[in-house]
């Protein structure tokens, strides 16, 4: 196998829970392959450098192996190698989040009133 779709590979490497989420991340320009924004159908090959943004953080990785099937987490970790700078930046971001503590939701936990709904609709372009 010389290459596989990037959305399949991201799903197989367990960066996203579903292939649809991986495809959507590509569409939203959260995935770059060799410093080029990647579309879901782009081929990924061994040796490619990927920059991935997902809810777990930002990853800079090098593709080591290809797979189009989702396996166990241990197998998924053998598909790529994360750079040391990426590991360090994710660790620092986790420490900063830990220091901030939980976010208190006070005013946003109530239901929107008529005025709030009108503002929401006008912002979204719904009329």
Order of helices and strands: EHHEEEEEHEHH
- Number of DSSP strand runs: 7
* C-alpha geometry: extended
Structural class: alpha+beta
Which band does the percent of strand residues land in? 15-25%
What is the rounded Rg? Answer: 19 Å
Query: What about the largest sheet?
Result: 5 strands, antiparallel
> So how many helices?
5
Tell me the domain tally. 1
Mean pLDDT: 90
Give the C-level CATH assignment: Alpha Beta
Helix content: 25-40%
Termini separation comes to: 51 Å
Q: What's the CATH H-level superfamily name?
A: RNA-binding S4 domain
**What's the CATH architecture name?**
Roll
| Low-confidence segments | none
CATH topology: Structural Genomics Hypothetical 15.5 Kd Protein In mrcA-pckA Intergenic Region, Chain A
Strand order of the largest sheet: 3-2-5-6-7
GO molecular function: DNA binding; ribosomal large subunit binding; single-stranded RNA binding
Family: Belongs to the HSP15 family.
Organism: Tunturiibacter gelidiferens
Protein name: Ribosome-associated heat shock protein Hsp15
Attribute tags:
single chain, about 130 residues, alpha+beta, Structural Genomics Hypothetical 15.5 Kd Protein In mrcA-pckA Intergenic Region, Chain A, 5-stranded antiparallel beta sheet, two-stranded antiparallel ribbon, 5 helices, extended, S4_RNA-bd_sf, DNA binding, HSP15, single-stranded RNA binding
